[in-house]
Amino acid sequence: MIALGIYGSPRKNGNSDQLLDRALEGAASEGAEIFKVYARDLKMDGCHECGGCDKTGICIVKDDMQNVYPLLEKADVIFLASPIFFYNLSAQVKALIDRSQAMWSKRMLEKSAEERKSYDSGKGYLIAVGATRGQNLFDGAQLTARYFFDALDMSYEGGIFLRRMEKKTAIQENPETLEEAFDLGKKAVSG
Ligand SMILES: Cc1cc2nc3c(=O)[nH]c(=O)nc-3n(C[C@H](O)[C@H](O)[C@H](O)COP(=O)(O)O)c2cc1C
């Protein structure tokens, strides 16, 4: 069982980073092999919309995203973590998501419309934090996450959504949510 954590925040050790750390610790406690990607460290573009992947499912843009594709392919479970920025995911992780267009093309090439009604490559979870208490705070991020995981042939399984987190250390005042993240990690890999 391979679990991949995608860290979407530009802020090192911030709220979403800490929640994702705990989720991965939970997954590791069940024996999962853990891989991590930090979107903030990747030297990469967003999608060029060049059509280079249309007939092959392989992205032709040579940058750090080429090291991420194999991890997206082999992960059985992916935890995507991000702060809410303007009611969606961070730009850093959105660039990575847009580049998964190559995997969307691959799925279209490899599976029929009937086969695409099911997801055969694993499960995806979203961990998102925002500063406000808005009712619709996570709607945009959840839609984006759902269709990211769809492109990866993975089902979207929901996750953890936490409001009123602004300071970098705010999550420390919510030990129960860190525990919830640990439990989510355990549950996600133990089937
Ligand atoms: C550019 C930017 C945009 C933001 N937009 C929102 C927003 O639309 N809604 C919200 O509730 N919080 C917003 N925030 C606050 C962050 O979501 C919040 O501080 C969060 O805890 C950061 O998570 P992190 O520590 O994992 O980076 C924004 C912060 C920044 C820097």
Task: Explain what this protein looks like in three dimensions.
The protein is an alpha/beta fold. It has a single domain (2-190), classed as Flavodoxin domain (Rossmann fold, 3-Layer(aba) Sandwich). It is built from 6 helices and 5 strands. It has helices spanning 15-29, 65-74, 91-99, 101-110, 139-151, 175-190; strands at residues 2-7, 33-38, 77-83, 123-129, 155-162. It has a 5-stranded parallel sheet, with helices on both faces. Helix 1 packs across helix 6 (175-190). The radius of gyration is 16 Å and the shape is globular. The termini are close together. The mean pLDDT is 98. Flavin mononucleotide binds next to helix 1.
Content-based structural category = alpha/beta
Q: pLDDT average, as an integer?
A: 98
Taken from the alpha-carbon principal axes, the silhouette is globular
Biggest sheet, spatial arrangement of strands = 2-1-3-4-5
Q: First CA to last CA: what distance? A: 10 Å
